[in-house]
């Protein structure tokens, strides 16, 4: 097999996953331009090589070895496509750090993304998971997504409706590897209103004058709250929230409250409520648990952590143990939030 000069054999991904697992890609390639995606997929298919795409590695669980070809998404660039009195349209490369984008928008007086501050990972990964925090989801601001369709082997642009966004889900997550995102097109309206309905933000700004609740103030508040609740991946391996907050019918919530009066839940819509998965896990005694090289964070039970020297199998066994216990105690199926890569 004649390997392209930019193909990297036996490439370590230990710095490319925030869990800090020792992972080796059989082959890897840095994607810095959109055109490389099509070229690389043609090569992979011609040589019957499996492939996967990796951004910042902040929402994935990787096995110790990844066969075939790993595309490392490093497409940079933030472009102002258009701007008028109503808002600004941005085209952002899939490899741009999400938090760096949030900072850039505030520095250029384009508010809207401040509630999503300090979320690790890249812009290209944001639509896959439909990232959200503190009452805001990225789909609120997505105009369209540019991607290469590996099934049709052609470039496409999907508008917001075609992305099929829902809670922590999208067309891209439902069809892994089919759509490889190269850029995300955002629209940030100039008409700005603070979004502080989330309980933590309400508490943070309680008693403060309305004119002090600026986009920068919300950004700083979110950073402070997240820093207090979530461990820094540079200090201890983690992917943030490991489980989704389950959404249940209000009739189910009423039954749960009879057995567990202190259960934490928030209204989702007229007929549904969102349960705090962290409360469920904590209630079952998992907070602060360590088993081998992995465990549950002692400040936020929603976060599974890697102490070092562990692997995906250890972490997933702990996750399954938690899921089984929650199912037995509450009759609720916890869904894993990060993407699990198979060896």
Automatic annotation (TrEMBL):
Pathway annotation from the record: Cell wall biogenesis; peptidoglycan biosynthesis
Subcellular location: Cytoplasm
Catalytic function, reaction form: UDP-N-acetyl-alpha-D-muramate + NADP(+) = UDP-N-acetyl-3-O-(1-carboxyvinyl)-alpha-D-glucosamine + NADPH + H(+)
Main location: cytoplasm
Superkingdom: Bacteria
Residues of the FAD-binding PCMH-type domain: 21-191
Record flagged with keyword Nucleotide-binding: no
Cofactor(s) essential for the protein: FAD
UniProt record, GO biological process: cell division; cell wall organization; peptidoglycan biosynthetic process; regulation of cell shape
Keyword annotations: Cell cycle, Cell division, Cell shape, Cell wall biogenesis/degradation, Cytoplasm, FAD, Flavoprotein, NADP, Oxidoreductase, Peptidoglycan synthesis
Any one cellular-component term (Gene Ontology): cytosol
Enzyme Commission number(s) of this protein: 1.3.1.98
Tagged with keyword Cell division: yes
One annotated GO molecular function: UDP-N-acetylmuramate dehydrogenase activity
NCBIfam families the record matches: murB, PRK00046.1
Record-linked PANTHER family: UDP-N-ACETYLENOLPYRUVOYLGLUCOSAMINE REDUCTASE
Sequence similarity: Belongs to the MurB family.
Function of the molecule: Cell wall formation.
Protein's name in the database: UDP-N-acetylenolpyruvoylglucosamine reductase
Organism: Polynucleobacter sp. UK-FUSCHL-C3
Gene: murB
């Amino acid at each position: 097999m004649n390997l392209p000069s930019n193909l990297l054999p036996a490439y370590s991904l230990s710095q490319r996953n925030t869990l800090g697992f020792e992972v080796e890609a059989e082959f890897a390639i840095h994607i810095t331009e959109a055109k490389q995606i099509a070229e690389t997929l043609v090569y992979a298919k011609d040589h019957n090589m499996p492939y996967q795409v990796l951004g910042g590695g902040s929402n994935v669980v990787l096995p110790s070895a990844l066969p075939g070809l790993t595309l490392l998404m490093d497409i940079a660039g933030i472009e102002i496509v258009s701007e008028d009195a109503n808002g600004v349209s941005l085209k952002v490369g899939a490899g741009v750090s999400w938090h760096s984008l949030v900072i850039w928008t505030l520095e250029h007086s384009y508010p809207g993304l401040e509630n999503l501050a300090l979320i690790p990972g890249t812009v290209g990964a944001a639509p896959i998971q439909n990232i959200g925090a503190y009452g805001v989801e990225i789909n609120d601001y997505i105009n369209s997504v540019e991607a290469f369709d590996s099934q049709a082997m052609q470039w496409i642009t999907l508008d917001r409706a075609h992305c099929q966004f829902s809670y922590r889900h999208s067309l891209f997550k439902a069809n892994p590897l089919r759509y490889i995102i190269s850029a995300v097109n955002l629209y940030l309206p100039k008409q700005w209103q603070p979004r502080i309905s989330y309980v933590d933000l309400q508490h943070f700004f309680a008693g403060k004058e309305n004119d002090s609740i600026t986009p920068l103030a919300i950004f700083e508040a979110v950073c402070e709250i997240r820093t207090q609740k979530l461990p820094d991946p540079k200090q201890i391996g983690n992917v943030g929230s490991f489980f989704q907050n389950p959404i249940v019918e209000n009739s189910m919530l009423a039954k749960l409250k009879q057995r567990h009066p202190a259960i934490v839940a928030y209204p989702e819509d007229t007929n549904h409520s969102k349960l705090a998965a962290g409360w469920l896990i904590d209630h079952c005694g998992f907070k602060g648990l360590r088993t081998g090289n992995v465990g549950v964070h002692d400040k936020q039970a929603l976060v599974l952590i890697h102490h070092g020297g562990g692997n995906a199998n250890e972490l997933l066994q702990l996750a399954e143990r938690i899921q089984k216990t929650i199912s037995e105690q509450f009759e609720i199926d916890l869904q894993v939030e990060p993407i699990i890569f198979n060896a």
